[in-house]
């Protein structure tokens, strides 16, 4: 077992720690800090404190915590932190359909909404090879709306596992989001739960499960990217739950 692998029994050196900040966030934090300092010196102290609070929020927005992903080729993990707001049976996007990609038949789509308070680093649902990355410009509607999957700025990613299982997922920009930042390109070999990109300032991720696979999450449930198991490939047993 390598130093990065974690057992599911016993004790280890696991300790809570402050999450690191993704480099993408530093430039925004520096700009906010400079403006805050200018407010303190030249304008009004209360504006400076507001700017300081915004600076701290920006650093929190771009936090990049370590995640522990189960190593099981059947498990499909959540690509995003957030709230499961939609589970529907739909046809996959045409950009993810075709030879060597997904079939056009309807499958289960799980939509995860990320608020401005969630971690916005997105991760791969499975290990495999990046088969497609398709960026589409579009609108910036509320990402919680169903039509956002077809009208908003978005980026489709297709991952093919070693066993041939293909998982498509879509990063969708939201009302506040203005840029999708990719970390991968076609041909890259990635691990399950590996970072694949981020969406700046509020957004959504849709995951298209394989045929004959039911989600193991529920509407209203919160997911943790790279850790929460969205589904187990080939398991078509629906589950119920309770909000409490």
TrEMBL record:
Can you supply a Gene Ontology BP term from the record? phosphatidylethanolamine biosynthetic process
Q: Give the first-level EC class, as a single word.
A: lyase
Q: Membrane-spanning regions, if any?
A: 25-43
Q: Where in the cell is it found?
A: Cell membrane
Bilayer topology reads: Peripheral membrane protein
- UniProt site (Cleavage (non-hydrolytic)): 202-203
What top-level branch of life does the organism fall under? Bacteria
Free-text function comment from the UniProt entry: Catalyzes the formation of phosphatidylethanolamine (PtdEtn) from phosphatidylserine (PtdSer).
Name the HAMAP family on file.
PS_decarb_PSD_A
Specify the protein name: Phosphatidylserine decarboxylase proenzyme
Name of the gene this protein is made from: psd
